């Protein structure tokens, strides 16, 4: 396919020089396009082997080269010297490694347009004489990690000079236009050499002499006098400087990391630099206090200061503060209009905090163990942080009484505040609160708050609770075992979980029901103090659909039946004092006509009541009878539950007999799930076709160890679990839709009985006969013949 020259030019502009050479060998058109001078203005040969003649030819062919990189190229000095006459337009030259002699630097004058020279990891000169860089057009010179005896730089237009990590004993500068000078890690340079070099540059604005351990305060003072425009200074890791009496009025950025001589007395000189914007004082081990009033300070870093106790900062534009690992910091006072985030984590000795920060939004004071209750005034309305939205006080173990009154606060975390006994929040916009681990909380008030949900976690000592939350829809109080007084005013509340609130009284429940009429789910499990009066108040909850009264001492359920006709789910698990008479209203009077789920697990309900419930409560979808000791057999008949005022054997003479189809339609029950796990005394389960359980899809009889006979005719049954029914001997199934049959550890079940049972289960896919010793696990071919749909047979003895 032919490509136009313009399209080829565009494509080749994305290729490197190696790829251009390969593409040029394809055809004449590609060769011509690849040789265009636009692609060869920048020659990058770093770490490449190239012979002298090829390099000279390339430079001769492309004499408009502006950028040349020979870093890591063998004999790069010779290459440049041989081709220097063709590099008249060179602007940027990069060299690295090898030896560069005096002749190389002298020939650079042949490149009048050269503005940038970078040399790294090379040996300069012969080792016995100065290396002189003399070029009138050079603007930037970087000699990095090189080795030389002495270096002399005479460049009238030079603005940037970096000698970082270069080993030299002396440096001479004649650069009247120099603005940036970098001596970082020049360990061999003496204090006097650095002083002479820097003071020779009157226009200097940036100086880096970090890790030059010989630098003294006298040198700094001389530089300050000679370089009045110095705005950036890095003197980190200079142990001999204290910065006292150093006057740098134009300083903007100051870095004094790991300077052992910096003390509180140094702050006076720093404060003289009124234009300073960024300050770093990390690892200054003798620094005990910082008190600065700098109108332009924006950033400050104070990390790992072992003796640091006091911090006072005043700056209207201060926007970033980093304080970390200051183990003895006690007092902090900050005034700023720009600060939005403050993090003071793990300041174990911090006990006093003063903030005047009009735009502060986020504060994190985690693990400040000595913070007192007074800190709450700082973050309340009128305390100096009117815009505060997020406050973290995790593990502040000295907080005992927390009172916050803030109109702006949205998020609050008090996790791990184990000494807190009282909490009072008046934060109308509060959306999230974390109280994990506040296990000594005794009184709590949330009035008002904007919370949509609240989980108090485990508060075993909480006795009094007040909540006023107009937007709250979910409230969890489980674990508040001694809560006795609860005033809850949440008009939009839909779910309340008060599990294990053993001392919650009737009056609290009544008040809550009146104030929260939209509750749909109410969990009162293990609320042992709730009685008839409390349950009677549920008539206010017209939308109540789930009520959990498990593990209570209730005897009379009439208040529930009278107050909650719309109830759909009723849980009465482990209600040991309920009798058969307690449930009569369900199956004799038609109470709770919308009930679809009933849990009577581990209750003392008798055999008769269970049979009546299953027979008459035809709307039930899910029934749990787990662990019912009074259930001896489950035999479901076809008799319909007759009204109370009409005996079953009475029939009007003028009424025609009903057909079987009509009886089936009228008596069709909605039951789908029946759980009878762990019923120790049940011996027989029979559900004939006439019982009309047409929707029953799941039966669980696991762990019913005395169950001997199961006879099921269920047209819609999908799952049957008879695991651990160790007495099961008779199994009859007519379940055409059964797909999963669990018979784990049915030790008495014979193989012939199993074959007969599954013969009418035409879509059975999963069969578990693990630990069934009377079933031959070495050959399942007979089972697959009887039931061809089987896909998976689980057994411990498969060969």
From TrEMBL:
InterPro entries linked: F-box_dom (IPR001810), FBL15-like (IPR055312), Leu-rich_rpt_Cys-con_subtyp (IPR006553), LRR_FXL15/At3g58940/PEG3-like (IPR055411)
Domain F-box, first and last residues per copy: 1-43
PROSITE patterns for the chain: FBOX
SMART domains in UniProt: FBOX, LRR_CC
Name this polypeptide is given: F-box domain-containing protein
């Amino acid at each position: 396919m032919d490509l136009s020259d313009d399209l080829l030019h565009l494509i080749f502009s994305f290729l490197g020089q190696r790829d251009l050479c390969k593409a040029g060998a394809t055809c004449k058109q590609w060769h011509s396009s690849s040789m265009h001078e636009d692609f060869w203005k920048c020659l990058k040969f770093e770490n490449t082997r190239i012979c002298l003649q090829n390099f000279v030819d390339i430079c001769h062919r492309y004499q408009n080269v502006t950028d040349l990189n020979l870093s890591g190229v063998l004999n790069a000095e010779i290459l440049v010297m041989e081709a220097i006459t063709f590099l008249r337009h060179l602007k940027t030259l990069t060299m690295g490694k090898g030896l560069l002699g005096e002749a190389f630097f002298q020939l650079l004058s042949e490149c009048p347009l050269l503005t940038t020279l970078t040399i790294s990891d090379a040996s300069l000169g012969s080792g016995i004489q100065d290396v002189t860089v003399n070029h009138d057009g050079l603007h930037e010179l970087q000699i990095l990690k090189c080795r030389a005896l002495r270096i002399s730089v005479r460049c009238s237009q030079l603005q940037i000079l970096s000698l970082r990590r270069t080993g030299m004993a002396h440096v001479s500068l004649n650069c009247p236009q120099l603005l940036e000078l970098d001596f970082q890690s020049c360990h061999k340079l003496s204090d006097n050499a650095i002083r002479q070099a820097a003071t020779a540059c009157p226009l200097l604005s940036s100086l880096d002499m970090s890790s030059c351990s010989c630098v003294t305060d006298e040198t700094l003072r001389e530089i300050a006098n000679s370089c009045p425009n110095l705005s950036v200074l890095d003197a980190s890791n200079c142990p001999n400087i204290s910065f006292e009496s150093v006057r740098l009025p134009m300083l903007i950025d100051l870095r004094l990391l790991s300077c052992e001589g910096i003390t509180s007395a140094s702050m006076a000189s720093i404060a003289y630099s009124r234009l300073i914007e960024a300050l770093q004082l990390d690892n200054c081990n003798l620094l005990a206090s910082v008190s600065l009033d700098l109108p332009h300070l924006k950033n400050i870093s104070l990390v790992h200061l072992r003796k640091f106790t006091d911090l006072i900062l005043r700056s209207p534009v201060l926007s970033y503060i980093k304080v970390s690992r200051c183990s003895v910091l006690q007092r902090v006072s900050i005034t700023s209009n720009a600060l939005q985030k403050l993090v003071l984590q793990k300041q174990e000795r911090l006990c006093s905090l003063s903030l005047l920060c009009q735009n502060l939004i986020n504060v994190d004071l985690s693990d400040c163990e000595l913070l007192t209750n007074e800190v709450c005034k700082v973050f309340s309305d009128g305390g100096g942080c009117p815009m505060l939205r997020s406050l973290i006080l995790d593990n502040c173990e000295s907080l005992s009484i927390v009172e916050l009154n803030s109109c702006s606060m949205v998020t609050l975390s008090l996790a791990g505040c184990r000494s807190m006994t009282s909490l009072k929040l008046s934060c109308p916009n509060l959306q999230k609160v974390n109280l994990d681990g506040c296990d000594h909380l005794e009184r709590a008030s949330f009035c008002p708050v904007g919370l949509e949900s609240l989980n108090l976690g485990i508060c075993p000592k909480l006795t009094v609770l007040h909540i006023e939350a107009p937007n709250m829809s979910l409230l969890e109080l489980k674990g508040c075992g001694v809560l006795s007084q609860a005033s809850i005013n949440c008009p939009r509340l839909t779910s309340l979980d008060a599990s294990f609130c053993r001392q919650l009284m009737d009056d609290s429940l009544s008040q809550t029901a009146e104030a929260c009429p939209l509750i749909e789910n109410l969990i009162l499990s293990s609320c042992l103090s709730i009685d008839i009066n409390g349950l009677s108040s549920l008539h206010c909850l017209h939308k109540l659909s789930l009520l959990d009264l498990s593990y209570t001492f209730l005897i009379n359920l009439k208040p529930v039946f009278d107050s909650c006709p719309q109830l759909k789910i009723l849980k009465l698990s482990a209600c040991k004092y309920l009798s058969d008479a307690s449930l009569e209203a369900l199956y004799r009077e038609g109470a709770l006509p919308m009930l679809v789920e009933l849990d009577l697990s581990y209750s003392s309900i008798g055999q008769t009541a269970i049979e009546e419930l299953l027979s008459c409560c035809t709307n039930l979808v899910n029934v749990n009878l787990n662990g019912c000791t009074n259930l001896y057999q489950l035999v479901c008949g076809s008799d319909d539950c007759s009204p109370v005022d009409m005996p079953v054997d009475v029939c009007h003479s003028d009424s025609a007999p009903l057909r079987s189809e009509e009886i089936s339609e009228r008596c069709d029950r909605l039951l789908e799930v029946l759980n009878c796990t762990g019923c120790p005394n049940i011996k027989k389960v029979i559900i004939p076709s006439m019982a009309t359980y047409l929707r029953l899809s799941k039966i669980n009889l696991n762990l019913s160890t005395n169950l001997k006979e199961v006879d099921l005719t269920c047209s819609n049954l999908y799952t049957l679990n008879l695991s651990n029914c160790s007495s099961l001997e008779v199994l009859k199934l007519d379940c055409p839709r059964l797909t999963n049959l669990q018979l784990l550890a049915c030790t008495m079940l014979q193989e012939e009985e199993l074959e007969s049972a599954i013969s009418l289960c035409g879509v059975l896919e999963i069969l578990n006969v693990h630990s069934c010793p009377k079933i031959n696990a070495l050959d399942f071919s007979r089972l697959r013949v009887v039931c061809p749909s089987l896909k998976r047979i689980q057994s411990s003895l498969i060969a």
